[in-house]
Each structure stands twice: as structure tokens, then as C-alpha cells.
């Protein structure tokens, strides 16, 4: 018998999180006074656990949703980390975690701290690298899982820098500088990271395409860049470990944020083993992150003419939109002629790769829409008891769904 997934709804502004059953939305646990960082999101760990960061408290939290459903505590573990949290990643085993720091609520980079954590030994170390908004992956040696690397993706100037895990853990107190033992050049506009744990490859998105590098004979070796094959570029990468595909959403059109309603959007999918790349037009407006069900890739699209949830057949040879579901408008939604980022409501999306349910938030209204992507029925609306300003953050957790195969926070 398949265990139904659980949905964690986080309101990072109000400092609340709610754990709900799917699909009826029954509350089973909650967190108060916890401002879970929106940017690094949630990192799936083995055993149905999830890691996230309380940005205000400066703590990494390991959550046990199914234990909480059965009466145990939701927070299984707390470890100190540097904030503001930028990107969170783990090695393929889910033991070694790395967290970078970014701008937070500032206009310029001011923090250059990297935190590395070992969830088995309890080690937690902070070092200095470079200020900015770095991405991160934690690569294990396919032949020796103990020989891990932390790979940072920097901007301005762009680079992939490699740090040995053992050297980071040997750092002295006082957040000393940590020198990389290797660096590969990148364009200066990187945004988006992923890894393939089966091959030891790391991926970084830039305006030129998806840059690839592979761990080989003790060094990181650059490989051919994957082209976008559509107007614009991707600002986000995500691995679908079940189908071994890499996904992004390509944003094109005018550069001015005020003209966001004219932006073009294409879903981009690359087969890691078949080396085939396909794109699919999603329509104009604001599209960003995505989520995977057992059979679909889900996106939300915000536009002055109406918002919608889009479902693509993730198993098709050529992905295409198979369903468009209208979403109720948001008070305070982005408006034409203004930036879609500051002081507006947005939407978050979540799904479990082991189930057919998709969740999308209605920012500012305290609501989450829940849709059965396989069943074809009408969506249901859950009132979650917190406003979800700026869209909140969602994660759907399925027991044994394999979500930890994507080792970057989402």
C-alpha cells in the first residue's frame, strides 16, 4: 500500500509552517517562530526527511514529517549555520551538506561564509570563500564515497571552484579563508545548479547554456556546454532523477523587469543518457520554478490576463503542455509596468515524484490549490491559516518517492 504524501507549507514572512495531509489538508504538525529561508528552499534527504534553514535563527533544521504525523517531533535536529542562506546541497548519500550565504535583505553581497555539515558525525564548520550569490553542489567520488568535494558556482567573475571536504572540516575556528584546490572559468552570469550523482557531473546555467563538468581522475574536467535551443536562458536547473532528465525554464524577451508580462517562457528538458534536448512554449509572463509528479512536470504562470497551472507530460519523447488549469487571481499580484519581484504576491509549486498531486500557493490569501494531475478532476482549495505573503514555500514529501535523488535544495 502506498503511503499518501504530506505537504509542508511555509510562510517565511509570518514565521509559520504547517504540515498537512494530502489530499484532505488535515493539519498534523506546525512550527511557530520559524522563518524558513525561501531562496535555498527544501532539500530532500533519505528516509522521507527534509532539510531547510531558519534564516533568522541561523539554524539548519532536519525535519521528520512522517514521524510528526505519527506523533513525534517535526524538528528532528538543529545545527548552527551562517545566514542569509543562499543555496543548500547534499552529497548523494544525504550525509554531507553545504550551505552558501548571499545578499539576504541587502543590495550588495556582504557575507562570504560557507557552512559544511556532517549529519552523521555532527561536525559543523564555517569558512570564508568569496562574497556574492554562489551556488553549490556536493560531489562524491563514484569510486570512493568518502572522498567528497564542495563545488561552488561563483559570479563576477564566473567560476566553478572545487574544495576538498576533508580540508574544509579541518578548518580552524574563526571562519578562516578556504582556498580552492581547482577553478574552472564560467561566464559571469551563472544562476542555477544541479548534479547527476550517477556520473559525478555538475551543471551550471549561464546565458551561454548549461555548462557541464565531470569529476575524473581527481580533477573537475569541463565538458561541452549544452545549448538552450530557444530564446532566452534558464535561471534555474532541476534534476528529475526518476527519468534522468535535467529541466529549466528559459526566460526571453525584453530585459526590463517592468515589462515582465512580455517575457517569453519555454520549458527546457535534456535527457542525461540519451543526450536529447527539447523545448516547449509555456506562454508569456512570469514562470520560474517547477515540480515533478510521478508523470508530469508542473509550472505556474503569472500574467495580467490570468494565472494558470501548467502540466507537461514528463514521460513523452517531446514534452508538451497537456493541461492548463486557471488559478484564482491574487490581490497584490505583479502588475504591468512594475517589477514582478519587490512587494508583490507570487506563487510556489510543489509535488512528489511518487504521487500525482500538485500544490500551488495563492500568495497573500493563505490558500493552496491541490490538483490531482492524473485524475482530471477539479482542484481543491486548502485554507492554511497563514497569509503566505510573497507566495510562501511548499514541499510535498512522499515516503520512498526518491526525491533525494535530486541533491540540491528546491
Give a written overview of the molecule.
The chain has helices spanning 65-69, 165-169; strands spanning 6-11, 16-21, 27-32, 43-45, 49-54, 59-63, 75-80, 85-90, 96-101, 113-118, 124-128, 135-141, 144-154, 159-164, 182-185, 193-196, 201-206, 209-216, 219-226, 233-234, 238-240, 245-252, 264-271, 277-281, 290-292, 296-301, 307-313, 321-327, 349-351, 357-362, 367-372, 380-383, 393-397. It is mostly beta strands. The chain has one domain (6-405): Methylamine Dehydrogenase, Chain H (7 Propeller), CATH 2.130.10. The strands form 8 sheets. Strands 20, 21, 22, 23 and 24 form a 5-stranded antiparallel β-sheet that branches. Strand 5 (49-54) and strand 6 form a beta hairpin. The radius of gyration is 20 Å and the shape is globular. It starts with 5 loop residues before the first strand and ends in a 13-residue tail after the last strand.
What are the main properties of this structure?
410 residues, mainly beta, Methylamine Dehydrogenase, Chain H, 5-stranded antiparallel sheet, globular, Haem_d1_sf, S9 family peptidase
Give a quick precis of the structure.
It comes from Streptomyces alkaliterrae. By secondary structure, this protein is an all-beta fold.
Amino acid at each position: 500500500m502506498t503511503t499518501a504524501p504530506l505537504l509542508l507549507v511555509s510562510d517565511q514572512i509570518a514565521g509559520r509552517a504547517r504540515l498537512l495531509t494530502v489530499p484532505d489538508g488535515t493539519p498534523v504538525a506546525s512550527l511557530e517562530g520559524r522563518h524558513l529561508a525561501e531562496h535555498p528552499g527544501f532539500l530532500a534527504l533519505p528516509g522521507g526527511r527534509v532539510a531547510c534553514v531558519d534564516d533568522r535563527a541561523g539554524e539548519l533544521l532536519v525535519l521528520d514529517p512522517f514521524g510528526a504525523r505519527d506523533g513525534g517531533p517535526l524538528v528532528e535536529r538543529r545545527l548552527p549555520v551562517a545566514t542569509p542562506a543562499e543555496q543548500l546541497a547534499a552529497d548523494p548519500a544525504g550525509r554531507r551538506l553545504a550551505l552558501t550565504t548571499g545578499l539576504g535583505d541587502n543590495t550588495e553581497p556582504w557575507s562570504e561564509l560557507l557552512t559544511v555539515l556532517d549529519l552523521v558525525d555532527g561536525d559543523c564548520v564555517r569558512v570564508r570563500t568569496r562574497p556574492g550569490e554562489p551556488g553549490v553542489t556536493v560531489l562524491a567520488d563514484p569510486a570512493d564515497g568518502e572522498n567528497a568535494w564542495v563545488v561552488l558556482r561563483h559570479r563576477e567573475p564566473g567560476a566553478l571552484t572545487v574544495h576538498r571536504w576533508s580540508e574544509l572540516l579541518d578548518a580552524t575556528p574563526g571562519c578562516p579563508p578556504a582556498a580552492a584546490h581547482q577553478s574552472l572559468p564560467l561566464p559571469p552570469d551563472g544562476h542555477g545548479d544541479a548534479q547527476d550523482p550517477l556520473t559525478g557531473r555538475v551543471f551550471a546555467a549561464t546565458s551561454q547554456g548549461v555548462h557541464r563538468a565531470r569529476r575524473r581522475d581527481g580533477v573537475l574536467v569541463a565538458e561541452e556546454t549544452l545549448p538552450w535551443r530557444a530564446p532566452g536562458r534558464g535561471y534555474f536547473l532541476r534534476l528529475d532523477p526518476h527519468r534522468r532528465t535535467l529541466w529549466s525554464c528559459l526566460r526571453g524577451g525584453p530585459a526590463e523587469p517592468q515589462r515582465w508580462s512580455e517575457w517569453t517562457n519555454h520549458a527546457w528538458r535534456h535527457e542525461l543518457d540519451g543526450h536529447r534536448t527539447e523545448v516547449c512554449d509555456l506562454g508569456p509572463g512570469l514562470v520560474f520554478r517547477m515540480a515533478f509528479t510521478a508523470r508530469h512536470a508542473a509550472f505556474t504562470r503569472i500574467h495580467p490576463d490570468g494565472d494558470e497551472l501548467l502540466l507537461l507530460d514528463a514521460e513523452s519523447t517531446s514534452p508538451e503542455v497537456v493541461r492548463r488549469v486557471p488559478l484564482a487571481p491574487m490581490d497584490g499580484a505583479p502588475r504591468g509596468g512594475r517589477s514582478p519581484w519587490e512587494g508583490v504576491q507570487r506563487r510556489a509549486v510543489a509535488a512528489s515524484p511518487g504521487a500525482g498531486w500538485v500544490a500551488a500557493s495563492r500568495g497573500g490569501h493563505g490558500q493552496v490549490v491541490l490538483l490531482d494531475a492524473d485524475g482530471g478532476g477539479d482542484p481543491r482549495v486548502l485554507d492554511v491559516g497563514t497569509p503566505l505573503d510573497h507566495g510562501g514555500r511548499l514541499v510535498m514529501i512522499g515516503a520512498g518517492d526518491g526525491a533525494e535523488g535530486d541533491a540540491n535544495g528546491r
